[in-house]
Amino acid sequence: MKKTGLLGVIACAAMATSGVYAQETYEIWHYYAAGSELAGMEAMIANGNASVEDAQFSGVIIPGNVVELRRQLQTAFLGGQPPAAYQSSMAFELKAFADGGRLHPLTDVWSEIGGDEIFPEGVQRVVKVDGVPYGVPFDLSLINNVFYNTAIFEELGLQQPTDWDSFTQTCTALADAGYQPLGNAGGTFWSLYNFYAPLVSVLGEDGYYQLASGELGFDSPEFSEALDLYRDMMVSCYADNWSGKTWTQTADDVINGDTGMFMMGIWVGAYFEQADFLAGEDFDVFQAPGTVGKSVFQMDVLAVPEGTEAGIAAAEDFIVAAASPEGQAAFAVPKGSLAPNVNVDPSVYGYAGARFAEQFTEASAANAVLPNLFFLLPTAVGTELGVQIERFAIDPSDTVKAELIATLESLRQQALAEDAYISW
Amino acid sequence: MALRSLMSNRTTRTHLAFLALPVVLFVTFYIYPIVSSIHLSLHSWDGFSPAMRWVGLQNYATLLGQPRFINAVFNNITWVVFMLVVPTGIGLLLAALLDRGMRGEGVFRIIFFLPFTIPAVAVAAIWRWMYEPSNGLLTTVLNLIGLGGLSQNWLGDPNIVNFSLMGAVAWWTTGFAFLVFFAGLRNIPTECIEASRIEGATPWQTFWKVSFPLLWPSTIIVLGMSAIDAMRLFDVVWAMTKGGPAYSSEVLATQMYDLAFGRFAMGQASAVAVYLLIIAAVIIMPYIYYMSNRVTESEAE
Question: Which compartments is it annotated to reside in (chain A) (predicted)?
Answer without folding.
Answer: Periplasm
